[in-house]
Design brief:
With about 210 residues, the protein is mostly helical. The chain is about 80% helix and about 0% strand. The chain has ten helices and no strands.
Length: about 210
């Protein structure tokens, strides 16, 4: 179990690198008129995607039987994820995203959809982690725990702010705003380094899997 978590937690942590999600949550929490409810709606949408990917990876891997645990499939999953991450990193380098400072009012379902859309690119890193758990030989309860840990880590930037404000109240806002300011100022560098760094890691481990 420990060795499995050692493999998946770094990938899930990489999936948690999402300056855009953190910025959206902080913009919501800066509004006293329904901002906290919107932040929770964003979390629900993002969590739904993470759960769907987890369940999908588990069912597909189990359904494939021995093929689902094959080293070649593991390598292919990692190489595909590496290509997606490299694309995101290069696009961010060439065409830096323009940060928005405007909070858009809208129904709860729309904010849940925004959360789902913003977390979707992060699944390029979460999918290899989910597949690693699904193909592992740990018991069913162990897999549930591993999925729960990986999902919790991947959702830190979207879950942390609303949870902190709900539990600790307004006194935590200055710390969250300072964190958001740092991430916003360095969002482009953080995204590029994370995407390209993990793309290299997944490429090396993927090629190693094909060679082995």
């Amino acid at each position: 179990m420990g060795s499995l978590l050692a493999q998946v937690v770094p990938l899930a942590a990489g999936a948690a690198v999402s300056p855009g999600l953190l910025a959206v949550q902080m913009l919501n929490l800066s509004e006293t008129d329904g901002g906290l409810a919107r932040a929770w709606a964003v979390l629900v949408g993002a969590a739904a995607v993470v759960v769907a990917v987890s369940i999908g990876a588990l069912f597909v891997t189990v359904g494939l039987g021995d093929l689902g645990r094959d080293q070649t499939l593991r390598a292919v999953v990692r190489l595909v994820a590496a290509v997606v991450l490299a694309g995101v990193g290069i696009r961010t380098w060439v065409r830096p995203p323009k940060p928005s400072t405007k909070v858009i009012k809208g129904p709860t379902a729309a904010w849940a959809g925004l959360g789902a859309a913003l977390v979707a690119p992060n699944m390029a890193l979460y999918l290899p982690a989910a597949h690693e758990i699904a193909r592992s030989t740990v018991s069913a309860p162990g897999k549930v725990v591993a999925f729960a840990v990986a999902a919790a880590v991947a959702l830190v930037p979207v879950a942390g702010p609303p949870l902190a404000v709900t539990v600790l109240g307004d006194r935590v806002r200055p710390a969250l705003e300072a964190l958001n300011g740092f991430v916003t100022r360095n969002s482009r560098v953080v995204t590029i380094v994370a995407c390209l760094g993990f793309a290299v890691y997944l490429t090396v481990t993927g090629i190693d899997g094909l060679a082995g």
